[in-house]
Design goal:
Helix content is 64%, strand content 12%. The protein is α/β, with parallel strands linked by helices. Helix 5 packs antiparallel against helix 9 and helix 5 runs antiparallel to helix 10. It binds adenosine-5'-triphosphate.
């Protein structure tokens, strides 16, 4: 991997876009003081994910953005982009070229990009850690920081070395694993407590389930009993129904017949109600007969009387005819005599009072003439007239007799007819009387049989009604049983059962069922589904939790093993690395100082470890602290032991500025040699060196450039001479840095 280019825009003094190409092993950046050279080194730090603004000489993120110059307004964002050639895949990402970009805004918000895709800082750091470019920035030595490694404490030193040795990646892995382990343990704790929480509930449910199972057993027993009972009941009902229906057929038929016969007989009797009418008719005939007889007798009597009169009249006529022959027999009517006598009396009375004789004589003559006239008259007329009258009378009587005779024959005819009718009616009535008697007898007989039949049918009906009640009970029981013991009770059609006319055994079965029902109710009644369901659910949850615990314990164990492995690896690699560094350190040191000795020793440091910026940035949630043991107790650090040639000085404190610079350069180069980072940036690391040491420094640099690309910010002529490419940085009159590629000779001028 090599560094291809750096692109700076809006970062610090680089208001305008500046691009630095690094296609040679050594690139130098030169320029006068304050032109912006160190800003380039900081641009590297920035783009590689540096989180300490302070280390980039700022207080806030804002300080990293170009703040405006004379005629240039300030900018709102600063961006730095670095491009690596990754054809060897030293960055673990499948691209031949990898660009990392970081942008900071005025509100201090940062954005990171890998090949243009927005990523997290973590992604950048992890990607770089894989290529030994760590956050500790051991490969970027800022101005005045040449002896940084010497000034650092044991722990920081260790971190820098770990970083340089490329062990950081193991740390991250370890941290990650520890974080996972913590999380796993936390989960385990939770799962354990969840399991503990549900344990009493499971025990409680278990007891409930036992009850439910007992109840289920009883219920299944109940189902069997019910099925048997129901099947028998069904058979009984069916059989009885058929039997009763069949038994009713004959009596019903007979009843029908009897009803019809009774109806017929009643119709006969009904008709006999006309009997009264007939009697009435008979009576009326009788009365008519008697009337006609009376009439006949009357006529006969009248005829007799008339006949008597006729014979009397005939006798009279005979007598009169005999009398008509003599006056003696002549009849003077008294009335006529009285009338004559009256007239005479009146004249006599008159005469008695009359004094006149003539008148008296007259009266006497009148009386005489009257008498004569009377006698004369009666002598002639009286006799003849009587016969005629009698004959007249006789004629009338005879006519009357004739009329009566006719009337009699009519009456006799009527009588004869009535008599005939009467007799006929009488015999009809007699005949009917006989029929009625038969009909009545029949009706009585029918009624007797009907009564008997009624009894039979009634008994059958009662049987059927009772059966209906049994059937209704049966249906109700079916429903009840289905509700109580489930629908399986209804599944009894396939069972075989004999018909039992005796209900005793069936009653016993029913009682047994009732007993079990009561016991079932005591045991908690129907249902239990909820309990079973809850038990099953809780149980499977418990099992799930148990499996979860098992899994978590397994993964915790795996993580512990992994952490242990990583620890071992770290220890081994670290020790190995330190040994290698020591070897190089000794060589470089001896080279620099012309002898002496220098080494690193691993020492135990009893100090609470400070969290790295990276950890701080990720926060507690993502990056839990190292296990307490590592945090609080002893941990390994690195001590530096030096011994200068021909001097008795031991220990860093006693070194001069130049000696410190040389020592740290020796160590830095030793570290870089052991595990060369892709590039190293050295900002005026050579500032304190005299000419002789500058040459040695230049030699070492050239040697180092075989392993790592070097970017050297320098004022040192010797150093400049070793660079393949030189960039000059100047501060424009408007107050922003300008970049130009220059030749060595120009560089000398620019650097001044
Ligand atoms: P020396 O050789 O003295 O070490 P140098 O070339 O390394 O100098 P730098 O320290 O890189 O110089 O540059 C410092 C310059 O950058 C100063 O002039 C400073 O004003 C300028 N500068 C720093 N931050 C900003 C900023 N945010 N906006 C504008 N200019 C800035």
């Amino acid at each position: 991997m090599y560094l291809k280019s750096l692109e700076i825009q809006g970062f610090k003094s680089f208001a305008k876009k500046a691009v630095l190409e690094f296609n040679v092993p050594i690139t130098s950046i030169v320029g006068p003081n304050g032109s912006g050279k160190s800003n380039v080194a900081e641009a590297f730090r920035f783009v590689l994910g540096e989180q300490s603004i302070k280390s980039m000489r700022g207080k806030r993120g804002e300080d990293l953005i170009f703040n405006g110059g004379k005629s240039m307004s300030r900018q709102n964002r600063a961006s730095v982009k670095v491009i690596f050639d990754n054809s060897k895949r030293e960055l673990h990402i499948d691209f031949d070229e990898v660009s990392l970009e970081r942008v900071v805004h005025r509100d201090s918000a940062n954005e990171y990009f890998i090949n243009g895709s927005l990523v997290r800082l973590k992604d950048i750091i992890e990607l770089l850690a894989g290529a030994h470019i760590g956050a500790s920035g051991h490969h970027i030595i800022s101005q005045g920081e040449a002896d940084k490694i010497l000034n650092a404490n044991l722990r920081e030193r260790r971190e820098m070395i770990e970083d340089a040795l490329g062990l950081k990646i193991y740390y991250y892995k370890r941290q990650e694993s520890e974080r996972k382990l913590d999380k796993t343990q936390e989960n385990l704790k939770q799962v354990y407590s969840l399991r503990k929480e549900i344990a009493p509930h499971i025990r409680f449910l278990q007891k409930q389930v036992e009850k439910v199972e007992k109840a289920r057993e009883m219920r299944s027993q109940l189902v069997t009993l019910y099925q048997d009972y129901f099947r028998r009941e069904e058979v009984y009902i069916k059989y009885e129904k058929e039997r009763l229906e069949k038994a009713r057929i004959e009596p019903e038929k007979r009843r029908q017949e009897l009803d019809e016969a009774a109806a017929r007989a009643r119709a006969v009797l009904e008709r006999s109600k006309n009997k009264d009418g007939q009697s009435q008719e008979l009576l009326s005939l009788e009365s008519k007969l008697s009337e006609v007889r009376k009439e006949r007798d009357e006529i006969m009597r009248e005829t007799g009387r008339i006949e008597g009169q006729i014979s009397a009249e005939e006798r009279i006529i005979k007598k009169q005819r005999e009398l008509a022959q003599s006056d003696e027999a002549k009849v003077v009517h008294l009335r006529e005599v009285e009338s004559v006598a009256e007239t005479i009396y009146k004249q006599v009375t008159q005469a008695e009072t009359e004094e006149n004789s003539s008148t008296l004589k007259e009266i006497v003559r009148g009386i005489g003439s009257l008498l004569r006239e009377f006698i004369l008259k009666n002598k002639d007329s009286t006799t003849n007239g009587g016969i005629a009258e009698s004959e007249q009378e006789l004629m009338v009587l005879r006519a009357e007799k004739e009329r009566l005779s006719q009337k009699l024959s009519a009456a006799q005819e009527i009588e004869l007819d009535l008599n005939k009718q009467y007799k006929e009616l009488q015999s009809a009535i007699e005949l009917e009387k006989d029929t009625n008697r038969d009909a009545e007898k029949t009706v009585f007989k029918i009624m007797a049989e009907q009564n008997e039949l009624h009894g039979v049918i009634h008994a059958l009906q009662a049987g059927q009604e009772k059966l209906q009640v049994i059937e209704a009970d049966f249906k109700r029981e079916l429903q009840e049983a289905a509700t109580l013991a489930g629908r399986a009770v209804l599944d009894f059609a396939h069972l075989t059962a004999e018909f039992e006319s005796d209900r005793h055994a069936q009653d016993e079965r029913r009682k047994n069922i009732e007993r079990i029902k009561i016991r079932l109710e005591d045991a908690g009644g129907a249902g239990g589904e909820d309990v079973m369901k809850e038990y099953d659910e809780t149980k499977s949850r418990d099992e799930f939790l148990a499996r979860e615990i098992e899994d978590l314990e397994k993964s915790a164990e795996t993580l512990r093993v992994l952490i242990k492995d990583l620890d071992e690896k770290l220890t081994v690699e670290f020790k190995l690395g330190v040994e290698k560094i020591n070897k190089q350190f000794q060589e470089f040191f001896a080279l620099m100082f012309g002898g002496g000795s220098a080494s690193l020793t691993v020492v135990k440091e009893e100090k609470k470890r400070k969290k790295s910026d990276y950890e701080l940035e990720l926060g507690d949630e993502e990056t839990p602290a190292f296990p307490e043991a590592t945090d609080e107790a002893t941990e390994e650090g690195i001590d530096i032991n030096v011994s200068l040639p021909q001097k008795r000085i031991k220990g860093l404190m006693m070194l001069s500025g130049g000696e410190r610079a040389l020592t740290s350069i020796a160590l830095l180069f030793a570290i870089s040699q052991v595990n060369p980072p892709p590039f190293i940036i050295l900002d005026e690391t050579d500032a304190a060196l005299d000419e002789a040491n500058s040459r040695k420094y230049g030699d070492m640099i050239e040697n180092l450039s075989k392993y790592s690309q070097l970017i050297l910010i320098t004022h040192n002529r010797e150093t400049m001479s070793r660079a393949g490419v030189l960039y000059g940085v100047t501060m424009s009159s408007e107050g922003f840095s300008k970049l130009l590629s220059i030749k060595f000779d120009e560089a000398l001028a620019v650097a001044k």
